[in-house]
């Protein structure tokens, strides 16, 4: 296997649900990612024919790898970008993994004296309720957020809604949409200057593929 050189573009790819859509978009952009990579457990994947290296990261960590420059660019959801607030360039809206960030509760929700909001996104939730002029206690959870109003930990949650199936199956309703989410291409500030031609070329290819997709 060939060693990546200094100019190899290191790409932090989010493992899981975004990866399949991102690799599909790369292929549509003419970048030949072998299909057997979609299910690999390998964490660093060399793609010598594209002069790229994929770093398979937990989605929430993608901005960290890019900010520190161990990845030149990365693909990450707008939800993670808003929550993590890292010093990276946002280059392109890839239009994939569409969903939204919402305030969710039980249908009979009523304001309480000590409102509590559970979420995986404490910074997003705190900022939203501050802007609304509402004082709430934000409780950080790491998953299955919809449990919180069902078992009385919190009266509302701030979470991602994609198909709405989790809400429907648990008898919850969307009360407000905070912002729409899609995946974005981000870049390290130094890499963006040092590997500009390469990054710009990738942006152009992806942009063309997105434009074709949108018809
Ligand atoms: C996410 C999110 C919701 C669900 C929304 O959870 O936190 O629970 O997906 O998707 P839906 O609208 O299509 O039902 P995820 O599957 O990432 O797992 P988690 O609960 O462990 O965060």
From TrEMBL:
Keywords: Amino-acid biosynthesis, ATP-binding, Cytoplasm, Glycosyltransferase, Histidine biosynthesis, Nucleotide-binding, Transferase. SUPFAM superfamilies: Periplasmic binding protein-like II. Its main location: cytoplasm. One of its GO terms (biological process) is L-histidine biosynthetic process. Pfam families: HisG (PF01634). It comes from the Bacteria. Its EC number is 2.4.2.17. Pathway: Amino-acid biosynthesis; L-histidine biosynthesis; L-histidine from 5-phospho-alpha-D-ribose 1-diphosphate: step 1/9. Residues 58-206 form the ATP phosphoribosyltransferase catalytic domain. It catalyses: 1-(5-phospho-beta-D-ribosyl)-ATP + diphosphate = 5-phospho-alpha-D-ribose 1-diphosphate + ATP. One of its GO terms (molecular function) is ATP phosphoribosyltransferase activity. It is found in: Cytoplasm. GO terms for cellular component: cytoplasm. Lacks the C-terminal regulatory region which is replaced by HisZ. Catalyzes the condensation of ATP and 5-phosphoribose 1-diphosphate to form N'-(5'-phosphoribosyl)-ATP (PR-ATP). Has a crucial role in the pathway because the rate of histidine biosynthesis seems to be controlled primarily by regulation of HisG enzymatic activity. NCBIfam families: hisG. Belongs to the ATP phosphoribosyltransferase family. Short subfamily. Heteromultimer composed of HisG and HisZ subunits. This is ATP phosphoribosyltransferase. It comes from Paenibacillus roseus.
């Amino acid at each position: 296997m060939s060693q990546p050189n200094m100019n190899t573009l290191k790409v932090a790819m989010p493992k899981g649900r975004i990866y399949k859509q991102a690799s599909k978009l790369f292929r549509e952009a003419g970048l030949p990612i072998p299909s057997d990579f979609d299910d690999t457990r390998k964490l660093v994947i060399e793609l010598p024919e594209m002069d790229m290296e994929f770093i398979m990261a937990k989605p929430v960590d993608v901005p960290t790898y890019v900010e520190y420059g161990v990845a030149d660019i990365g693909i990450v959801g707008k939800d993670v970008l808003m929550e993590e607030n890292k010093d990276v360039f946002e280059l392109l809206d890839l239009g994939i993994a569409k969903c939204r960030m919402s305030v969710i509760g039980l249908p009979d929700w009523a304001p309480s004296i000590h409102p509590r909001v559970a979420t995986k996104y404490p910074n997003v939730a705190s900022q939203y309720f501050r802007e609304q002029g509402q004082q709430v206690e934000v409780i950080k959870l790491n998953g299955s957020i919809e449990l919180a109003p069902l078992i009385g930990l919190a009266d509302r949650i701030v979470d991602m809604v994609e198909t709405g199936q989790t809400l429907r199956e648990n008898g919850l309703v969307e009360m407000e949409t905070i912002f729409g989410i899609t995946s974005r291409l981000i870049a390290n500030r130094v890499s963006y200057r040092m590997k500009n031609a390469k990054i710009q070329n990738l942006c152009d290819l992806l942009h063309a593929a997105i434009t074709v997709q949108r018809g």
